[in-house]
UniProtKB/TrEMBL annotation:
Biological role: Catalyzes the reversible transfer of the terminal phosphate group between ATP and AMP. Plays an important role in cellular energy homeostasis and in adenine nucleotide metabolism.
InterPro entries xref list: Adenyl_kin_sub (IPR006259), Adenylat/UMP-CMP_kin (IPR000850), Adenylat_kinase_CS (IPR033690), Adenylate_kinase_lid-dom (IPR007862), P-loop_NTPase (IPR027417)
Gene symbol of the encoding locus: adk
Top-level taxon of the source organism: Bacteria
Listed name of the protein: Adenylate kinase
Keyword Zinc tagged: yes
Keyword entries, A-Z: ATP-binding, Cytoplasm, Kinase, Metal-binding, Nucleotide biosynthesis, Nucleotide-binding, Transferase, Zinc
SUPFAM superfamilies: P-loop containing nucleoside triphosphate hydrolases
Enzyme kind, highest EC tier: transferase
Amino acid sequence: MIYIFLGPPGSGKGTQAKKLAVKLNVPHVAVGDMLREAVNKESEIGKQVKSFMEEGKLVPDEVTIKLTEERLKKDDCKNGLILDGFPRSAKQALALDLILDGKNFKVIYFYVSLEAVVERNSGRLSCKCGAVFHIKYNPSKREDICDKCGEKLYQRNDDNPEVIRNRYKVYEESTRPLIEFYEKKNRLVKIEAEGSIDDVYKRLLEVIDK
Ligand code: AMP
């Protein structure tokens, strides 16, 4: 099964996607992570998208569509995957229909309040290895040090209150309409994403095909 995780930035979909991907033994395809990697490597794509990401804007559709299409073609995606952070616009949703080409998929929509979004994003600490912590809800064992690889944790450039609000605004304008789009196609399952990581994970498991 292909699961598409939809929700505002800070809804916890990345955290849940990582847990579920391990359980289902499928890849977690996070478009934001791929873009950040490109920026860190200073690749051509990285140079194109850096300023959009720093301002909390969507990077151009052409870039994310191509990146996602190439990633989804890889062998490891053959037996299912979790797609996190794509689609984020109507154009991306239409492109994804073509990429999936009739394959079965389910969209899981994580809903949370704006207050929770700001609190979760502003307390988030990330690691280069992909691990993510939260100073209050999911602290690392040693302050500012990654539990998984021992590297120093950092705050993402776009996790400051001003950019977080902008990302939420962009979500409301461009991504929220996709909820109705997938509802009409009978693909949408909603999950209340407030509460602890374990509470949300339990709700998630209830809607995953057994
Ligand atoms: P995320 O890690 O999912 O919070 O994404 C971080 C940033 O990457 C977003 O604020 C956008 O600038 C960019 N981004 C990630 N996914 C997409 C997408 N599907 N379309 C456009 N921009 C994206």
